[in-house]
């Protein structure tokens, strides 16, 4: 099953988990993560799959994907630490820093110098900075392809000059890295995040073609092309899934004739629909337009709706939901900002205080982007595997909020 909708989760199990662990609660299903991984590797049987840790860096997720056979793509010293501590072998780790702070590179130098890890450099001067820290190992050069796509402009990184080396300078950076004694392996680009439509696929293909051209004319022999992540999942019930086979075929076609190993960096595709967020309705309010359901999760728990205007399905888990009349409902959180809206104008069986709501596709960029704004402790996370369940992240307490203050 390539799509898992919110209705596919067991209401009774979710209600029991909310009773047991309280809300707001993230529930992550590791069987689904494994299924997603198998489907992806089925479409890309020859690719090196590096999980983009930023989508969900929980140790439980890293363990599941490492055991399934994935490597790890890390964007920061923190992600690098998590991946190495979780047991990913350095040769399976790609570090893809963006304008890396000195402290991050100090850490990367300490842990990666002398290993087979790969560093993807997005700026010519990162080579200096790595060399001065003793790292002269495997490198990829990140290309700024000038073409981006994704669920919103904020994540269409391929079109943002902050990321990668301009096309006309790529060969110079490759030659420079080679001269300095780095083990120059290949090129990298990331089109953007949340690729779903045929037009997104075309943009992705254009990016891969750009990489292929640059490899073919490279002054240094290259054996690796990393096309980044970005494989999207449907968030709306009406959206069809990404045609993964079409993406894989277009990628292979664009690279035809080159003797290179392919790497991909999926984040969302592996974990998004493996997670739901559970929230309890504490307040209801009639307005002229919608019924407002005030819940105990908000933009500090799941920021995607506030930040990207992202759509997440919402479902009532009230045992008698089927007997209630659906009314236009907006689901709002407890944060003192008008942006604190999880869902707007949805037809949901009339909510009542005490009801439990489930928010779908919360496994990617959910708990990972949670904050303590408004001094709200971050939520707990429960991981499921078969009939087993485990609290993998305890709910933060009010005392946790001040532990870092001097
Ligand atoms: N590789 C690189 C170099 C990336 O920058 C990213 C995501 C990925 C891989 C993984 O992309 P994915 O497969 O998960 O789409 N917070 C946003 C997503 C930002 C992604 C940024 N880069 C969201 O909630 O939609």
From TrEMBL:
- GO MF annotations in UniProt: diaminopimelate decarboxylase activity; pyridoxal phosphate binding
Which InterPro entries did the record assign?
A: Ala_racemase/Decarboxylase_C, DAP_deCOOHase_LysA, De-COase2_CS, De-COase2_N, De-COase2_pyr-phos_BS, Orn/DAP/Arg_de-COase, PLP-binding_barrel
What's the cofactor? pyridoxal 5'-phosphate
Q: Give the enzyme's main class according to its UniProt record, as a single word.
A: lyase
What residues form the catalytic site here? 336
* Binding residues for substrate: 268, 304, 308, 337, 365
Quote the Pfam families the UniProt record gives. Answer: Orn_Arg_deC_N
Role, per record: Specifically catalyzes the decarboxylation of meso-diaminopimelate (meso-DAP) to L-lysine.
Provide the protein name.
Diaminopimelate decarboxylase
Which organism does this record belong to? Answer: Salarchaeum japonicum
């Amino acid at each position: 099953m390539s799509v898992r909708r919110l209705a596919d989760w067991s209401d009774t199990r979710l209600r029991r988990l909310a009773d047991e662990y309280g809300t707001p609660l993230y529930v992550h299903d590791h069987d689904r993560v494994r299924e997603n991984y198998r489907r992806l590797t089925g479409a890309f049987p020859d690719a090196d799959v590096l999980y983009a840790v930023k989508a969900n860096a929980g140790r439980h997720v890293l363990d599941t994907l490492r055991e399934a056979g994935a490597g790890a793509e890390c964007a920061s010293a923190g992600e690098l630490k998590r991946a190495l501590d979780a047991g990913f072998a350095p040769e399976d780790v790609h570090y893809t820093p963006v304008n890396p702070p000195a402290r991050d590179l100090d850490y990367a130098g300490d842990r990666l110098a002398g290993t087979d890890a790969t560093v993807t450099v997005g700026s010519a001067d990162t080579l200096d900075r790595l060399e001065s820290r003793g790292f002269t190992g495997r490198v990829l050069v990140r290309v700024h392809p000038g073409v981006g796509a994704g669920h919103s402009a904020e994540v269409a990184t391929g079109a943002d000059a902050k990321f990668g080396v301009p096309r006309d300078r790529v060969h110079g950076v490759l030659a420079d890295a080679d001269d300095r004694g780095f083990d120059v392996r290949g090129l990298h680009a990331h089109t953007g995040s949340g690729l779903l439509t045929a037009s997104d696929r075309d943009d992705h293909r254009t990016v891969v073609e750009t990489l292929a051209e640059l490899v073919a004319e490279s002054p240094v022999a290259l054996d690796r092309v990393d096309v980044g992540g970005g494989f999207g999942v449907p968030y709306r019930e009406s959206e069809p899934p990404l045609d993964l086979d079409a993406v894989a075929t277009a990628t292979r076609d664009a690279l035809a004739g080159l003797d290179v190993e392919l790497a991909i960096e999926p984040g969302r595709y592996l974990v998004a629909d493996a997670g739901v967020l559970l929230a309890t309705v504490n307040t209801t309010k009639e307005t002229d337009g919608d019924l407002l359901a005030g819940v105990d999760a908000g933009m500090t728990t799941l920021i995607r709706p506030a930040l990207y205007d992202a759509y997440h399905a919402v479902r009532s888990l009230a045992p008698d939901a089927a007997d209630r009349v659906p009314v236009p409902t907006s689901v709002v959180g407890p944060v003192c900002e008008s942006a604190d809206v999880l869902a707007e104008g949805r037809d949901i069986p009339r909510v009542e205080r005490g009801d439990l709501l489930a928010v779908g596709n919360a496994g990617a960029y959910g708990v990972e982007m949670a904050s303590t704004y408004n001094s709200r402790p971050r939520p707990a996370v429960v991981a499921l595997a078969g009939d087993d369940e485990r609290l993998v992240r305890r709910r933060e307490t009010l005392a946790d909020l001040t532990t870092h203050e001097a």
